[in-house]
Amino acid sequence: MIKVENLRVEQLRSVLIDDVSLSLRRGEVVGLLGPNGAGKSTLMRTMVGLRQPTEGSVSIDGKPVSAYSARERARLLSHVAQKQDFLWDLEVADIIALGAASPLQSARTIERLGLSEFASRRIKSLSGGEQARVMIGRALAAGTPFLFADEPAASLDIKQQRAMMRILRREAREKGTGVLVVLHELNLAFASVDRILLMNRGRLVQDASTIEVAQSCEIDNVFGESFARVSIDGQTLVFPTGS
Amino acid sequence: MRRVAFSATLALLVGLAGILVGASLGVKAATPLKLLETLTAAGPTPETLVLEWRLQRVVGAFLVGACLALAGVIYQGAFRNPLAEPFLLGSSAGGALGAALAILLPSIWLSGAELPVLAFIGAWGATLLVLGISRAAGIRDAAGMLLVGIALSTLLAATRSTTTLVLSDDNVSLRAIISWTLGGLQSPTGATLLVFALLTGTCFLASFSLARGLDLLGFGESTAATMGIEVGRFLTLSLTVAAFATGLAVAWGGVLGFVGLVVPHAVRWWIGERHAPLLFHSFFVGGGMLAALDGVSRSVLAPSEIPLGLITSLIGAPFFLLLLVRRYR
């Protein structure tokens, strides 16, 4: 389990994360939602050890994240950043293999993500959406117990967004991976995650089940929109009404 | 896999061909068969002695080229800058300053050893300075970092010239240093050549432990860090290996520009950008290229020599311009 306790992150004098406590268990898919600048990426980067907390702590299985070596950490968690540099124009299969625990794992991931047709293509020749799928594939191939994905669905078309979330859910169900995923599409989140963390201005506003968050008025406050809600087949969908 | 094995064999052959070409060219051209006879000849004749000298020198040139290509690949990966190379980053100039001091100052320790040691310290120090200045100034882009390298290079070259003028009291050391600056290959013999080869081999092997990290750094420092690379430590290790290779190259080959740029880029076009094969291929192609060019430098204006540094710059600088044009278009 990853535990975040009373986390505070400051940069220069501004507070990026303010008194956030939460936990991420194995086998659950948790959505991290909030407007731009709410601190979602910063929270994620702190949780994976890329940033130091100013106060408070992040621990994996009871041990502070900073106490693990980079190599140990890479065996426990994967992080797919929002924006990805590609300095070297590597082949897709090579990129997956760089993250993979074994060649078998790498071949399976390529097949499972439907990347076979790109496997021998160079990464820079792919579209943004295809690149995003490759980077998720690279993370999945590592087979870590925790996976952090920062807006993996951002550059995907509707069909691929659903497919991406199905893959993450299956990873959680079958392998017991704990997944934390930043999403912007509210209805995509409602359809695909077990629990939602709602952030605003560095604070964690709500930590509740998907259905609870969908029906409460916190999302209206946080996004500064009033949402209309529709229930179809037991699932709540929201639409901004523009007022 | 088969493709890699094939191209690796080809790279080895390129290296070997370079040595053969280099050893064949010269005041008296010799066929590869003649070279073989020389190596197996029973008694030394004036002719075989010339060829033996030439063969040793060409092997030395091979090692210098291999080191520079290796250093180029590592610098490019570690600085995340495809235009980095020992000459442009100022580490060759640092190495040359160290080498010049070794020639000028009275021999303090083991005779001969201070030259490569000071060359390494100079190359390493210059690299750390470029990295330090760039970090302190917040320079992250390729062009900015190269400007720091070029400025430092100029400063180090001026320091070397000044020190040379002040300290050299006879014409011998002055001449030796000037020929160094222009890329004058030394002709290591026997035991020295063996030591040089062993050190170069060590660099070659050490560089493979860097391959995965260099691949991952291409995704950015954050991604590399979450994928298991201790970035700070990795960079220090990489720059040490690269500076060691540069120091070796400078100690035996003087200041040779652009080898570390041309070779890795040519190899990338050939086999792609993964670092394990890139390091392997660059090593042999770089060595072969410099060995062959050494032959050219000895034969174009025979019996006098064109300094090798002039030839590498004549080929390398236009190539560098070509890369710049492609990058900014």
How does this model look, in words?
The complex is a heterodimer of chains A (243) and B (329). Chain A is of the alpha/beta class and 243 residues long. Chain A has a single domain (2-240), classed as P-loop containing nucleotide triphosphate hydrolases (Rossmann fold), CATH 3.40.50. Chain A contains nine helices and twelve strands. In chain A, the strands form three sheets. Chain A has a six-stranded mixed sheet, sandwiched between helices. A four-stranded antiparallel sheet of chain A has the order 2-1-4-5, covered by helices on one side. A two-stranded antiparallel sheet of chain A has the order 11-12. Chain A is globular. Chain A starts with a strand and ends with a strand. Chain B has 329 residues and is mostly helical. Chain B has one domain: ABC transporter involved in vitamin B12 uptake, BtuC (Orthogonal Bundle), CATH 1.10.3470.10. Chain B is 77% helix and 0% strand. Chain B contains 14 helices and no strands. Chain B has helices at residues 2-24, 32-40, 46-78, 91-104, 114-137, 142-167, 171-181, 190-208, 211-217, 221-226, 231-253, 259-271, 275-299, 308-328. The longest helix of chain B has 33 residues, at 46-78. Chain B is globular and about 65 Å long. Chain B starts with a helix and ends with a helix. The model of chain B has no long low-confidence stretch (mean pLDDT 85). The chains are: A alpha/beta (243), B mainly alpha (329).
